């Protein structure tokens, strides 16, 4: 938003020849019409300590840095609704001609060493124009999960209640449909109170352990019936 | 053992960081402000020649150029042109008829903005400060067809006048001003360009020098000095009228405002008029209103003000005779008033805005063409305060000889900018809020009373408490009829989800806190954080003279707001609910009874002294390294509750936090070597608990820092080197008593004065995409809820809430987290944090120029109130762990009711079956 170069070094800018950099905003699937960008969109060119240029978006969808010094810059485009990739822009004096400046641009990767450059955006003498495109639209909002019948039915409470409904209604029907011999056998099994056999004893231990399950101990991380785990 | 409880709470309170679509725009509020509009940079203008509707353009005292839609007061576009505008820097904003750009000039820059959408058309850097900008209306052979050129006058050592091409912003010619005269103004008639310079005489008076130039080549054609010997002691009494009027004039008065002198620029003679007194009160201010059009009538209005009345005279310029004649006077009215000029074709209209009515007259005769009563300005004011208009701009719609409608944008003495349509207030913009110096949260009296009553019940014996309670309930019975009447309505609204959470008085959740703000013009303005669409109350706390500044400090205790400021050494206390002044005491009387330590910056270092002992020597002294300066000192917040003294690990062991209430983060910088040093200090003993040195730091970028609980965070910008990454960094450090779990180390319970136990500090550095200019942290009542770090991003004009878990320094580096670490919610360390757009608390709003963010706990534990100020004002509620103790909008009342009904139906349906089964099992034998 700042029009001025905040801390620009005027003196050295006057001495150096004018390197003129234009960054244009290209159309992309995320931004079919760059003219729809809001006026608050701006680009920041961050150089060595103390050198920073900040320019607003122009009517022709470009950012113009009319006069930049020789240095290595990080270019960031700030927009309300879109995200732009950061660029590395190097402005160097051309060796053979002192009045010439070479401007070169690469993609750069945040969090990587500065020498790690991405694909080049091109290079030019004195006057350069590069194009940037937004790679993503900013998503500000989270929609709440609405009511969904399937997920409602999938919830364990509903599943349990459904099973119990099946037991209440289905089991008597099943019992009725069984043939009388089977029924008698089952009745005998449930009401058998004979002397305990070995198999019976094992079954009753399991039954016991299920009944006397130490729920609190299990919750507290007890592994076996021995000592509890150090807390 | 409370630890399992906290482990459960921790697992429950998983951080959520997002703005929900249904809460955005409802929970948060934002005043997009411009600052106070200035008289000569505010106008109605049609953004393009084809559009009929006009917008209000202004360049404010904060250096913000912007446009407001006169229909609803919404900002169309705006740009902050200057970051640190001093009171004295002048800004200029000009527009020309039929052009689609507006031209601004401030400091060293001139820029043309597309009037409709605010895009930049061209800009220009100037060598000296901009002293004046004018659009050249005349059409000569140098002009480009369809565009109008711009004249830029720059001051400084090399003052010069430039003619700038209106389409491209390139220079057409430049006239270098010789001599040391101060460049004052540029003015243009329909044929010539004039530069007005101020020549300082030996005696310290000013003389006005006028240089006329050829508009085509910029050569000097004539020059003369106006004889104003020993009349002009200051520049303030020059009331000159700028360019483009049919006949530009320059007018000035003497220091006592007894005579008005007017010169038609281009002629060497001056006309002199006596200024009458009114009721023996001297005229305090004289100002001039004139049309800004070359083709309008050459009439102007002079506005006189005394301490309690104002009036105006209208003058006509006879162009053929080069004479100025007084035409008529507008009657004297008590109180202050404002005048505005409107032009329709060649006719000029003057509109007078007094305290209770708006009247419009034609410049040709004194007959009143339109008169509108001003009923209600719609602004909050103090009890005995009279609101007066400061300045105004008007737009008339004229049908035949009468005025069918009038729109007037008035700046009021309260700092509100109001649009009146035919005398009725359409919108109000509280522009005084753009200058908040200090702000604080307070609680309304009703809530505070209840809290106090509950407190007395809690602390008296059971019988007394019971009697008190019964009495209180009997007293509340009086409210029962009202409550019963509103009950169905409330139930209905609650069910449909349209209700808010009750008003200020019944603030169940503590969302309706009062935010008191002290502004630069000496006012106190209160907002309700729960219903922020209007100003709760506003009053003048201290009266400041123009240009006077103050440094207010607002603090609050329950429902009392106390204000301390350096202007007059006093301490004022206000009722938070209505803004009434409760008491005034001079600050010297306040005695400090508790052992307090005060800190001062002395001799480039930090000095700690006991305040309760007279003439006490310093307890400790911190002096930075050579060539270093103290950049900032940020203490841990006073109200910073911590729920747990340890961090529960995944395997239920505990890492004990280093909790010390007296911790501050001190940043020192060495600007020559680009080094920033960060120290964590114990502010009682002066011990350095942790320090870090960062080299290759861009010190012109902001360094924001924050201390809370047992951790600190700071952000800085590193410059490039081939091995290290360039960019902005956020560094988080967390202090523990020891790094081995279940071990409190040597410290345990300690006194900082006796032990020198240093904490074990873990730090992590993250690369962030943009600089942070201010850091703050959410606050909740008990501190159980996890925290968000609030960061203001200047480049994106956004406040983001970063969950602490994202920044946790204990994130495992170079490996995936173990099962226990996963249970704790730790993620594998990644050096880059991309600011997710869902973290933006302001979502699509653009919050400009915040300088501070304050937070306050709500009554419910889940929620923290956030308020940011500086230029814009933004506030919201943040539930860092989700709204676990409030039914949010995600709670589906229909679903709940459907479940209840369904269960009831199922119970009714199943009951006979169960009954039959019971009977069958006893009676049926098979």
Question: Could you give a short description of this structure?
Answer:
The complex is a heterodimer of chains A (231) and B (926). With 231 residues, chain A is an alpha+beta fold. Chain A has helices at residues 10-15, 149-154, 156-177, 180-191, 198-211, 215-219; strands spanning 19-25, 42-46, 52-56, 62-68, 71-78, 82-83, 87-93, 101-108, 117-125, 127-132, 136-137, 141-142.
Structure explained in plain terms:
Chain A has six helices and twelve strands. In chain A, strands 3-2-5-7-8-9 form a six-stranded antiparallel beta sheet, with no helix packed on it. A three-stranded mixed beta sheet of chain A has the order 4-1-10, with no helix packed on it. Chain A has a domain at 10-137: Immunoglobulins (Immunoglobulin-like), CATH 2.60.40. Chain A starts with 9 loop residues before the first helix and ends in a 12-residue tail after the last helix. Helices cover 28% and strands 29% of the residues of chain A. In chain A, β2 (42-46) and β3 (52-56) form a beta hairpin. The model of chain A is unreliable at 1-16 and 225-231 (pLDDT under 50). The longest helix of chain A is centred in the last third of the chain and has 22 residues, at 156-177. Chain A has helices at 10-15, 149-154, 156-177, 180-191, 198-211, 215-219, and strands at 19-25, 42-46, 52-56, 62-68, 71-78, 82-83, 87-93, 101-108, 117-125, 127-132, 136-137, 141-142. Chain A is elongated. Chain A is an alpha+beta fold and 231 residues long. Chain B is mainly beta and 926 residues long. In chain B, 11% of the residues lie in helices and 42% in strands. In chain B, the strands form 16 sheets. A four-stranded antiparallel beta sheet of chain B has the order 2-60-59-58, with no helix packed on it. In chain B, strands 3-4-5-6 form a four-stranded antiparallel beta sheet, with no helix packed on it. In chain B, strands 7-8-9-10 form a four-stranded antiparallel beta sheet, with no helix packed on it. Chain B is globular, with a radius of gyration of 34 Å. Chain B starts with a helix and ends with a helix. Residues 1-14 and 588-593 of chain B have low confidence and may be disordered. Chain A: Its main location: membrane. Chain A: The chain crosses the membrane at residues 157-175. Chain A: Residues 33-160 form the ER membrane protein complex subunit 7 beta-sandwich domain.
């Amino acid at each position: 938003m700042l029009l001025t170069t905040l801390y620009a070094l005027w003196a050295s800018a006057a001495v150096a020849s004018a390197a003129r950099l234009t960054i244009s905003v290209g159309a992309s699937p995320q931004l079919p019409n760059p003219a729809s960008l809001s006026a608050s969109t701006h680009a920041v060119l961050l150089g060595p300590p103390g050198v920073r240029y900040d320019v607003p978006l122009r009517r022709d969808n470009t950012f113009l840095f009319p006069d930049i010094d020789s240095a290595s810059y990080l270019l960031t485009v700030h927009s309300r609704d879109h995200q732009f990739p950061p660029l590395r822009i190097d402005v160097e004096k051309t060796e053979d001609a002192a009045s010439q400046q070479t401007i070169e641009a690469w993609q750069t990767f945040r969090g990587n060493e500065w020498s790690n450059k991405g694909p080049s955006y091109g290079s030019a003498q004195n006057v350069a124009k590069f194009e940037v495109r937004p790679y993503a639209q900013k998503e500000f909002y989270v929609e709440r999960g609405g009511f969904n019948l399937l997920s409602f039915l999938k919830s364990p409470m509903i599943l349990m209640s459904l099973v119990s409904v099946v037991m209440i209604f289905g089991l008597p029907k099943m019992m009725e449909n069984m043939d009388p011999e089977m029924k008698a056998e089952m009745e005998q099994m449930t009401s058998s109170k004979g002397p305990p056999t070995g198999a019976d004893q094992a079954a009753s231990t399991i039954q016991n352990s299920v009944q006397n399950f130490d729920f609190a101990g299990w919750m507290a991380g007890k592994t076996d019936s021995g000592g509890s785990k150090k807390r | 053992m409370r630890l399992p409880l906290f482990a459960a709470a921790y697992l429950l309170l998983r951080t959520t960081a997002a703005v929900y679509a249904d809460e955005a725009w409802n929970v948060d509020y934002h005043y997009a402000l411009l600052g106070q509009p200035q008289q000569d940079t505010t106008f109605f203008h049609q953004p393009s020649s084809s559009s009929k509707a006009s917008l209000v353009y202004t360049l404010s005292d904060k250096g913000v150029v912007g446009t407001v839609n006169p229909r609803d007061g919404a900002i169309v576009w705006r740009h902050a042109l200057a970051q640190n505008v001093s009171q004295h820097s002048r800004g200029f904003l000009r527009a020309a008829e039929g052009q689609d750009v507006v031209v601004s000039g401030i400091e060293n820059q001139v820029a043309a903005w597309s009037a409709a959408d605010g895009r930049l058309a061209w800009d220009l850097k100037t060598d000296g400060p901009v002293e004046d900008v004018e659009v050249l209306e005349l059409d000569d052979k140098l002009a480009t067809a369809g565009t109008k050129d711009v004249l830029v006058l720059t001051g400084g050592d090399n003052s010069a006048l430039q003619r700038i091409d209106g389409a491209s912003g390139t220079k057409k010619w430049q006239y270098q001003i010789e001599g040391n005269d101060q460049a004052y103004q540029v003015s243009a008639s329909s044929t010539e360009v004039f530069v007005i310079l101020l020549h300082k005489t030996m005696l310290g008076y000013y003389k006005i020098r006028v240089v006329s130039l050829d508009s085509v080549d910029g050569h000097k054609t004539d020059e003369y000095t106006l004889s104003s010997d020993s009349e002009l002691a200051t520049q303030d009494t020059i009331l000159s009228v700028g360019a483009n009027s049919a006949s530009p004039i320059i007018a000035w008065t003497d220091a006592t405002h007894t005579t008005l002198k007017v010169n038609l620029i281009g002629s060497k003679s001056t006309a002199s008029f006596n200024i009458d007194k009114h009721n023996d009160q001297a005229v305090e201010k004289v100002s001039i209103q004139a049309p800004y059009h070359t083709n309008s009538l050459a009439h102007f209005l002079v506005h006189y003000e005394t301490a309690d009345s104002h009036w105006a005279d209208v003058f006509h310029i006879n162009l053929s005779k080069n004479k100025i004649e007084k035409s008529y006077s507008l009657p004297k009215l008590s109180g202050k008033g404002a005048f505005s000029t409107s032009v329709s074709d060649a006719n000029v209209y003057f509109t007078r805005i007094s305290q209770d009515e708006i009247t419009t007259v034609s410049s040709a005769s004194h007959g009143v063409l339109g008169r509108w009563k001003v009923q209600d300005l719609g602004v909050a004011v103090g009890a005995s305060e009279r609101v007066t208009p400061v300045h105004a701009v008007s737009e008339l719609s004229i049908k035949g000889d009468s005025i069918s409608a009038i729109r007037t944008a008035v700046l009021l003495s309260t700092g509100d900018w109001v649009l009146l349509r035919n005398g009725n207030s359409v919108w109000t913009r509280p522009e005084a809020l753009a200058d908040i110096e200090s702000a604080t949260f307070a609680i309304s009296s009703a809530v505070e009373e209840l809290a106090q009553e509950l407190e007395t019940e809690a602390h008296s014996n059971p019988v007394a408490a019971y009697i008190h309670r019964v009495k209180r309930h009997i007293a509340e019975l009086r409210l029962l009829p009202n409550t019963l009447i509103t009950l169905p309505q409330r139930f209905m609204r609650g069910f449909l989800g349209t209700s808010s959470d009750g008003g200020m008085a019944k603030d169940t959740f503590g969302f309706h806190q009062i935010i008191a703000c002290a502004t630069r013009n000496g006012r106190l303005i209160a907002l309700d954080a729960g219903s922020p669409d209007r100003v709760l109350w506003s009053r003048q706390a201290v009266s400041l003279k123009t240009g006077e500044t103050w440094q207010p400090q607002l603090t609050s205790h329950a429902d009392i707001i106390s204000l301390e400021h350096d202007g007059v050494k006093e301490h004022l206390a206000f009722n938070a609910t209505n803004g009434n002044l409760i008491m005034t005491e001079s600050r010297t009387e306040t005695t400090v009874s508790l052992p307090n330590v005060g800190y001062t910056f002395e001799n480039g270092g930090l000095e700690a002294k006991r305040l309760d002992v007279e003439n006490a020597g310093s307890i400790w002294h911190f002096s930075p390294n050579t060539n270093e300066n103290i950049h900032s000192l940020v203490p841990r917040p006073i109200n910073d509750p911590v729920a747990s003294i340890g961090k529960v690990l995944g395997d239920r062991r505990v890492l004990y936090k280093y909790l010390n209430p007296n911790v501050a983060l001190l940043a020192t910088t060495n600007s020559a070597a680009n080094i920033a040093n960060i120290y964590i200090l114990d502010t009682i003993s002066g011990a350095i608990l942790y320090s870090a040195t960062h080299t290759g730091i861009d010190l012109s970028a902001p360094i924001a820092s924050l201390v809370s609980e047992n951790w600190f965070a700071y952000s800085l910008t590193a410059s490039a080197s081939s091995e290290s990454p360039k960019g902005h960094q956020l560094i988080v450090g967390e202090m523990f008593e020891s790094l081995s779990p279940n071990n409190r180390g040597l410290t345990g319970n300690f006194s900082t004065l006796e032990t020198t136990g240093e904490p074990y500090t873990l730090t992590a550095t993250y690369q962030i995409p943009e600089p942070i200019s201010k850091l703050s942290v959410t606050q909740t009542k008990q501190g159980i809820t996890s925290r968000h770090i609030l960061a203001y991003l200047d480049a994106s004009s956004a406040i983001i809430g970063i969950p602490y878990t994202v920044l946790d320094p204990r994130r495992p580096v170079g490996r995936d987290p173990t099962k226990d670490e996963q249970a704790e919610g730790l993620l594998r360390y990644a050096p880059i944090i991309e600011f997710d757009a869902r973290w933006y608390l302001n979502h699509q709003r653009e919050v400009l120029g915040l300088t501070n963010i304050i937070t306050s706990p709500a009554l419910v534990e889940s929620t923290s109130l956030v308020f940011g100020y500086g230029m814009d004002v933004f506030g919201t509620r943040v539930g860092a762990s989700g709204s676990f103790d409030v039914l949010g909008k995600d709670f589906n009342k229909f679903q709940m009711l459907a479940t209840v009904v369904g269960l009831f139906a199922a119970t009714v349906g199943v009951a006979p079956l169960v009954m039959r089964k019971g009977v069958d099992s006893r009676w049926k034998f098979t």
